[in-house]
Structure prediction request, 227 residues.
Amino acid sequence: EVQLVESGGGLVQPGESLRLSCAASGFTFSHYGMHWVRQAPGSGLEFVSAITNNGVTTYYAKSVKGRFTISRDNSKNTLYLQMDSLRVEDMAVYYCARRGSGGYDNWGQGTLVTVSS
Amino acid sequence: QSVLTQPPSASETPGQRVTISCSGSSSNIGSNPVSWYQQLPGTAPKPLIFNNNQRPSGVPDRFSGSKSGTSVSLAISGLQSEDEADYYCSVWDDSLNGPVFGGGTKVTVL
Prediction:
């Protein structure tokens, strides 16, 4: 069974940093591209960042480019999102999702990031 | 303002059919396959439709997808109370070089 378990969320002040992790199991992690998608309170889904299966290519939404860094460790079956210079508008539930051939075929349960002074 | 346009809400009585539209452009829906996701309250999104009209295993055939030009639609037939949820379309956008989502449609079963 495919499992994606996010961790690392919490309460931070504006300008601070946080690193999210997504532990994957039940599939060959190195075969899949992985994405981070977020959902602000009461809002819709928003793409944040993506990384190819081998970690060579990364993609970022304009709203986070230059502040967030996606990475992966295929030996540990883990996806990361380093979030620096956090803003109030970054407050959201962050989901990691596996990118299959047709779309996001598996999602984690999400981790909440709260940015507040 | 989402790149993909969905109606904010839709409603129908049990047993009826409801259709949700998702409108985009030539750089996204017009050139790439679309997926749909269902999000029940307080839960993570769940995939419903891949590649415009393919259901993942386990998704009832009451859910169907179609595409025409730069728009897609999700139809739910034989509407049930457990179908009350938010529904999102998503597709890769060649201009933005990343995936985009619709704003979501809240389906209410009357």
In short: The interface with chain A takes residues 2, 33, 35, 37, 39, 44-47, 50-51, 54, 56, 86, 88, 90, 96-104 of chain B (CB under 8 Å). The CA atoms of residues 73 and 102 of chain B lie 12 Å apart.
